[in-house]
Every structure is written in structure tokens, then in C-alpha cells.
Amino acid sequence: MNEHLQAQLDDYRRLIEIAAELSSHLDLSSLLVRITEAARDITDAEAASILLYDEGTRELYFQTATNIDEPTMRGLVVPLEGSIAGWVLRNQQAVRVQDAHTDPRYYGEVARTVSYDTRSLLAVPMMTKNRIVGVLEALNKKGDEGFTESDEHLLNVLAGQAAIAIENTRLFQQFDLISEFVHELRTPLASLSTATYLLMRPEISPEQRNEIIQNLHKETLRLSQLASAFLDLSRLESGRVQFEMQPCDLTTLIEEVVSLMKARAEEEQVQLRTEIPADLPPLWGDSNRLKQVLINLVSNAIKYNHRGGQVTIRAAAQGEEIHIQVEDTGLGIPPEAMPHLFEKFYRVKSTETHAQGTGLGLAITRQIVEAHGGRIRVDSQVGKGSVFTVCLPREHKT
Ligand SMILES: Nc1ncnc2c1ncn2[C@@H]1O[C@H](COP(=O)(O)OP(=O)(O)O)[C@@H](O)[C@H]1O
Ligand SMILES: [Mg+2]
């Protein structure tokens, strides 16, 4: 057998091995890492990267690369017009260039941001039968000759397998989410079914009947809250939610939240207070989403409190950030619960019956805060109370 044919056969053997391996990865990030490594190795390149296409925002963004670390890469969007990757995506066709700098489509911004110099480049579309998933790129062929036609062919085959693996993983994650939701539905559905069964019994008294109806009402309300909160969270998690970022007046926002929550606080005999400096600078963010964060934190602070307790909302500028605190004099959170607080559906066992809830509020809160480039933390002492602190950047970070 001639050498050329032997080399080709070796390449295809490697591709088949990689394909088998790709289909066994179930979490998206490790799958993407494996794809970029395979792309780099199979084409003898210095580096490789994956850009994923978001159908919702119609944006192409860097997801994984063998030569760039994650914090540098996060949120790096490549324009559809005026970039090689964008061209590959729009035309569903490979591009192979010897010197990227001389290509009119080359988008230098990324190179500047990650300080990596691209010379030769091979970019292929990642497509399944009916969907374009993204673009797979190999950068800087080792040696001087640049990428070959055979490299292009190999990378195309790999990209096809990668696209299917990525699609499957995404479907699997959606399936995970659905099973979790169905699992959470069981308890409220069981209590609804018990309640209706009891209502059908002829021997119950009018008082009992009334009590059961009250319970039915509460449970159905909770179910519908659960459904909309879950929908909101899954949209936030998938990154499909658009934020309307603009300068926000936090003082006004806090006042709105206080007037919204006043009745609830009075019902629970909890006193609501604010501590806001007069010269609080504006904040860059989505005011509706930030309001949602405040409502979640304040409603928890009221719910998990004692009668006669207090809730204090504070805001202050701290260097480049604004810190917002919601402090309560309530039940507090046991140390072993702390690491789980922001997980979806998590509720502290010891206080579960104290107030109704879905266990989704803090998960949603964290998603919103992090989408603003901020952080949230909590300090708490059982029996004394808790302080939730949200730190948000004042200026828009790019
Ligand atoms: N201020 C607080 N004080 C004490 N426990 C809290 C407080 N905020 C949240 N928690 C605990 O964290 C859990 C998760 O909160 P959250 O996600 O808002 O869900 P929910 O309020 O629907 O139960 C709550 O069930 C409660 O156990
Ligand atoms: Mg809550």
C-alpha cells in the first residue's frame, strides 16, 4: 500500500475513534474540550476553537479553545458580518487561508483581546441535518505549508460528528430539566388529589370542606408559581434571555420594591427599613430583572422571619461596584445548608414548613446577578438572621 493511502487510513481510523468517544460525553463543556483537542491534533494545528451559534440572539460566540482560558473568552462575540467564522456560518462552507491577516473577512478584535496571533486558518461549519450549530476552527498549521485539502476534509467530517454530539447533549440536558420538573410536580399533585378525594366524601363537615378548599386554592397557586418560576429559570440558564441594560436609579427601584412588599410585611408584623445614601450613583442593568432580585430577597427576608422582626435594605457604592444588602432578624440558615442555597428546588429542611415556597427564587436571583457580571453572597447565624449581599458593577463591562 502506498504511504499516502496509509496515512489517510490512519487519519480515518482516528476519526472513527474520536466519533465513538464523542458520543459518550454527556456534559457539554467536556465534550467541547474534547472536540477542540481532536480538531487540533487531526489537522496538526497549534490550536483549535469552537464558536457556537445562538439562534435566539443570532450571535456567534467563542465557547471553547485549546489556547484561551475561559474567563478571557466568556462573552466574546464574533460578528456575523465581517469575520471569517461569520462567513463560514452564513455560507455553510469551509474557509482555508494561508495568512488570516490578509483576508478581508478577518476579524482582528478577538486576536487583540486574547493576544493570540493567527496565521494560517481552517474554519468549517458544524451542521446537523437541519440545524447550524457553530463553527470549528483550526489555527496555525505546524510547519510552513498551511492547511491542506485533506485537513479540510478531515475537519469537515469531525465537525459533522461534533455537531450531532453537541445537539444530543443539549437535548439530554433539556430532558434532565424536564425530569426534574416532573419530579417536583409529584408532591403538589398528590396533595391536590387527596384534597379532591376528601371533598367527595359525604361525611365531611362544612368547616372541613372549607379548610380543604382553602388548601386546594393555596396548592394550585403554588403550582402555577412553580411553573412560571421554572420556565423563567430554564430560560435564564440557557442564556436565551435578553437583558435590557441601561442606567438604573437604584433608589427608585428600592422604593418601588418596598411599596410592593409593604402589605406582606405588615401581615407578618415585620418592619421594613431602608438605608440609602442620597448620592447613590446609577447602576448599569436591566431594571425589571434587578427588581426581581430585590423582590426575591426581600420576600425571603419577610417569610423566614419572626413576628416583630426587621428587614433592612441597604445600598452603597464601593469602588467600581454597588453593594446591595438585604438583612433580616429571622430564622437564619444552618451552615450545612449554605452551599446548597442557590441550587434549584433546594429548601432548608428545618424551616421548610415555616413558609411556602418553590425553592427557585435564589437560583433565579443568582442567574440574574451573574448575568449582570455581579456576585451574590450570604452570611447567616441560626436564630439571629441572615444578610444577603449583591455586588454589581456600576459600569457596563465588555
Ligand atoms: N432570608 C432567609 N432566611 C432564612 N432562610 C432563607 C432565607 N432566604 C432563603 N432561605 C432558605 O433558602 C431556601 C431557598 O430560597 P428560595 O430559593 O428563595 O426558595 P423559596 O423561598 O421558594 O423556598 C428557602 O427555602 C429557605 O430555606
Ligand atoms: Mg424565595
Structure overview:
The protein is of the alpha+beta class and 398 residues long. The chain has helices at 3-22, 28-42, 70-73, 84-91, 108-114, 149-199, 206-237, 250-267, 287-303, 361-371, and strands at 45-54, 59-65, 77-78, 95-97, 121-127, 132-141, 246-248, 271-275, 283-285, 310-318, 321-328, 375-381, 385-393. A hairpin with a 3-residue loop joins strand 12 and strand 13. The mean pLDDT is 90. It binds adenosine-5'-diphosphate and magnesium ion. Adenosine-5'-diphosphate (ADP) binds next to helix 9 and helix 10.
Q: Kindly state the number of beta strands.
A: 13
Give the strand line-up of the largest sheet. 3-2-1-6-5-4
Bound molecules: adenosine-5'-diphosphate, magnesium ion
CATH level 1 class label of the largest domain = Alpha Beta
Low-confidence stretches: none
From the alpha carbons, calculate the radius of gyration and give it in angstroms.
27 Å
User: How many individual domains?
Assistant: 2
For this structure, what is the CATH homologous superfamily of the largest domain? Answer: GAF domain
Summed up, the helix count is: 10
Mean pLDDT over all positions: 90
Strand content range: 15-25%
Helix-strand sequence: HHEEHEHEHEEHHEHEEHEEHEE
CATH architecture descriptor name of the largest domain: 2-Layer Sandwich
- Annotated CATH topology of the largest domain: Beta-Lactamase
Helical content class = 40-55%
End-to-end separation: 55 Å
Structural class: alpha+beta
Shape: elongated
Main sheet makeup: 6 strands, antiparallel
